[in-house]
Structure to design on (150 residues):
């Protein structure tokens, strides 16, 4: 079932860029931003990550914990974090387990070619583990403002 506002966020455990397991339910008591993005070090994804980086202190001051999630592996995430000086963790969903739970592995089309890929969607999970908001029309240049305006 697709996550919906007002319902519990699907729990998961996957590794971050250092191979450390991250379990969503371990963050109860904190507001969590799960932002799904297609690929490390691509123009739109870099723009989105850097916007979150540049506004990270404000997001932290509002009590948010940020996790980026893509199907890239740990090494790719480490390189992306290092190159862009990202202060938040990136989760490696190489087997698409979390993507399937959040319905973010979808049919896409580019230049007439159909393929499966990551939908750029952000889920905001409240302190009780409930989906508080879903941002489906992500503005990569202003994503932090979209989150903070919720």
């Amino acid at each position: 079932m697709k996550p919906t506002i007002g319902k519990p966020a699907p729990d998961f455990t996957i590794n971050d860029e250092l191979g450390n397991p991250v379990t969503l339910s371990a963050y109860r008591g904190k507001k969590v931003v799960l932002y799904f993005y297609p690929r490390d070090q691509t123009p739109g994804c870099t723009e989105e990550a850097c916007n979150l980086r540049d506004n990270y202190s404000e997001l932290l001051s509002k009590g948010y914990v940020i996790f980026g999630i893509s199907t890239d592996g740990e090494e790719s995430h480490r390189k992306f974090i290092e190159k862009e000086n990202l202060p938040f963790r990136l989760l490696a969903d190489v087997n698409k387990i979390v993507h399937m739970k959040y319905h973010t592995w979808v049919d896409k089309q580019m230049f007439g070619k159909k393929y499966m890929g990551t939908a750029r969607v952000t889920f905001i999970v409240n302190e009780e583990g409930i989906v508080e908001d879903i941002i489906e029309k992500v503005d990569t240049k202003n994503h932090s403002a979209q989150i903070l305006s919720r």
User: Anything to note?
Assistant: The chain is about 25% helix and 30% strand.
